[in-house]
Amino acid sequence: MRQVWRCWRGTRGKKSLGNAFLKVKRNNKARLAALARRELGVVIDPASLFDVQIKRIHEYKRQLLNLLHVVSRHQAIVADPNADWCRAAWSLPARRPPRTTPPRPS
């Protein structure tokens, strides 16, 4: 971690680094939006806010709160569609946790 901070130490106030970072971020968001369109048929604006949480399915409070936030945001947009909403895209892919016990023989 110290090596990372050493690399960043001399970059304070340099606009070129910030611009390069934003360019990489925009390109990655465009690639993710293209993948979602190609694989899922979902159109996502690359300029929107991306909120991606990739975890295993567990009963974690963080996962439940994130899902409740998405639902409450949807309800608020439906209730007032003409408000000045920030575009956002949520992705909550998950996989099941590994088995802790071997499967029973059939």
**Which ranges are low-confidence, i.e. pLDDT below 50, for 5 or more consecutive residues?**
none
What are the secondary-structure elements, in order, as H or E? HHEEHEE
Radius of gyration: 20 Å
Separate helix tally: 3
**What overall geometry do the principal axes of the alpha carbons give?**
extended
**Cα distance, first to last residue?**
50 Å
Strand proportion = 5-15%
Domain count, please report it. 2
The number of distinct β-strands equals 4
Mean pLDDT: 78
Helical amount: 40-55%
- Sheet with most strands: strand arrangement: 1-3
Which structural category do the helix and sheet elements fall into?
Answer: mainly alpha
Biggest pleated sheet: 2 strands, parallel
Layout of secondary structure:
Layout: H1 2-9, H2 15-40, E1 49-52, E2 55-56, H3 61-79, E3 88-91, E4 94-95
Parallel strand pairs: 1-3, 2-4
Q: What can you see in these coordinates?
A:
The protein has about 110 residues and is mostly helical. It folds into two domains: about 15-45; about 50-95, no CATH class. Helix content is about 50%, strand content about 10%. The chain has three helices and four strands. It has helices at about 1-10, 15-40, 60-80; strands at about 50, 55, 90, 95. The strands form two sheets. The chain has a two-stranded parallel ribbon. A two-stranded parallel ribbon has the order 2-4. The mean pLDDT is about 80.
